[in-house]
Design a protein that fits this description.
- The chain is an alpha/beta fold.
- The protein is about 45% helix and about 15% strand.
- It has 12 helices and 11 strands.
- It has helices spanning about 10-20, 30-35, 40-55, 75-80, 95-100, 110-120, 140-150, 165-175, 205-220, 240-255, 265-275, 280-305; strands spanning about 10, 25, 60-65, 70, 90, 105, 125, 155, 180, 200, 225-230.
- Strands 1, 2, 3, 4, 5, 6, 7, 8, 9, 10 and 11 form an 11-stranded mixed sheet that branches.
- Helix 3 (about 40-55) packs parallel to helix 12 (about 280-305), helix 9 (about 205-220) packs across helix 12 (about 280-305) and helix 10 crosses helix 11 (about 265-275).
Length: about 300
């Protein structure tokens, strides 16, 4: 491929931050264009960006903008993504096709990881990662493979509650991806605080997490480090309510013949309705909290350098 074909672009703010060696945090765009519905996606963008900035770092929303990998979205591009106007969902495998076709593509966790590798970004905040699907052990998210081969700190609230969480944790172990609890000894359940799935590592400060990351990289390890924290307690949804809504949503998806990439947005939409919006409030709160922690970790990494 000619070098001229790949010319990633950055907003002026992001470019200036990187030029001066400032801390930056990647944010995915799929949660805005396919995950949360308007007006919640606009609120999510504002809360995540503000949280990163308050932590002393620069937020970098990743996307494919008219065929070009973008690090940071200009105002008009962000408006188009928030309006969900012709924006396709792009995983890691889809990046090249979206570029060749000049498309707008909102990046999933896997695609954002790929762009982090391209742009040299060390820290990424999201809501929940993908993982092993329920009742379909052969079906697992591309996020897991990308986590295994992309050295980035990923801050999240665990894997999405619609997944097989024990199997997902086992796959992360098999793939050699360290899972570190921050403020918790167990894997959070995305909307819920507790799952009963114990972790092998806990580090409760950004400085400690940054030190562990430096050691991870010094050993030549090329996987991500997954840093998980529970959603804010005042907005978390009880596990029993989430499980009941998830089971009903799964039945609805099966009855409607929903498959492939459409499954996750469908299920999350169903759970929103079946929890009377509590899942959305939890989602917004955890996205903000994760963005803040990621900003603090990114700042700690820069101070150490």
């Amino acid at each position: 491929m000619p070098e001229s074909f790949l010319r990633p672009r950055s907003t002026g703010v992001v470019h200036a931050a990187r030029e001066r060696g400032g801390a930056v945090v990647a944010l995915e765009s799929s949660v805005l264009a396919q995950g949360l519905l308007p007006p919640h996606n606009r609120e999510a963008a504002h809360r995540m960006v503000s949280a990163v900035e308050q932590a002393g770092a620069t937020p970098v929303i990743t996307a494919i903008v008219r065929g070009v990998p973008a690090f940071g979205l200009e105002a008009d591009d962000l408006e188009r993504f928030l309006a969900r106007d012709g924006v396709r969902k792009v995983s890691a495998r889809d990046l090249g096709v979206a570029m060749a076709e000049g498309a707008d593509g909102a990046t999933t966790v896997a695609a954002t990881l790929a762009l982090c590798a391209l742009g040299g970004l060390d820290v990424f905040a999201t809501g929940g990662i993908g993982g092993v699907h329920r009742d379909a052990p052969f079906d697992e998210s591309a996020d897991l493979v990308e986590l295994a081969r992309t050295p980035v700190i990923v801050v999240c609230a665990g894997a999405k509650s619609i997944l097989d969480l024990p199997a997902t944790l086992e796959r992360l172990e098999t793939l050699g991806v360290p899972v570190v609890g921050c403020g918790t000894d167990e894997l959070p359940g995305f909307f819920t605080v507790s799952t009963g799935l114990r972790l092998t590592a806990r580090l409760d400060t950004p400085v400690a997490i940054a030190a562990a990351w430096r050691a991870h990289r010094a050993l030549g390890r090329t996987s991500a480090m997954l840093v998980v924290q529970p959603p804010p307690v005042d907005e978390a949804v009880p596990a029993a309510i989430v499980e009941e809504a998830t089971q009903a949503a799964l039945a609805a998806a099966t009855a409607a013949g929903i498959r492939g990439a459409a499954v996750t947005p469908f299920l999350l939409g169903e759970i929103q309705q079946r929890t009377s919006g509590r899942s959305v409030r939890a989602n917004l709160a955890l996205l903000e909290a994760n963005a803040r922690l990621a900003g603090q970790i990114a700042t700690a990494l820069q101070v150490a350098r």
